[in-house]
Amino acid sequence: MTENSLTTVHVAVYDTLADWEIGFLTAHVNSPAWHKSPGRFRIRTVGASAAPVTTMGGLRVLPDLTLDELSPGDSAMLVLPGNEFFPTEAFHPYAAKAREFRAAGVPVAAICGATGGLALAGMLDEHEHTSNAKEFLEGLGYGGDALYRDEPAVNDGGLITAGAQAPIEFARAVFAELGIYEPGVLDSWYKLYGEKNPAGFYELMGA
Q1: Which positions are catalytic?
Q2: Start and end of every DJ-1/PfpI domain (predicted)?
Q3: What pLDDT, on a 0 to 100 scale, did the predictor assign at position 3?
Q4: For 175, which of 107, 119, 168, 204 is 20 to 30 Å away at the CA?
């Protein structure tokens, strides 16, 4: 295990990436505010190639590295945002990398369409999971419908899934898996952003 495995969260980037689904996650992983160990974590982007990609919101992103260059031993987690190409062969390299991460015991977090890509790859057949809706995954013909959970986000042994409507719960599940915040601080973070309760702000200021 290298030093980077303790610090780097890799976010897959590709054309049609759904920007809003990972905004809370990336901003708060990369920011040391309220972290249990400030400066321990950072975000790095990974693409199928080194070419720039364009998100659904029209932002152009230049990947920091390629999938071929990414080793699970150098990562704390692989994050797969939602996208519009998950049912195509273009998503296969990302699903293959996710499978490699899980085989190595490194967490993977997928939201929205990316959960569909993992379902098509058979990665949700034996794990509790969620997505945009049960019908969304059933329409893909996957074999894990008995393990579907109607919850905003689910973490089954380091495989985190969430629906497009739950970016804050998705971020909270990632933070909990990585141990970024003390439990009480994470509760206050969710109180502020998830419950829209201003008391969470004052609790965080005192943390």
Answers
A1: 112
A2: 9-175
A3: 45
A4: 119
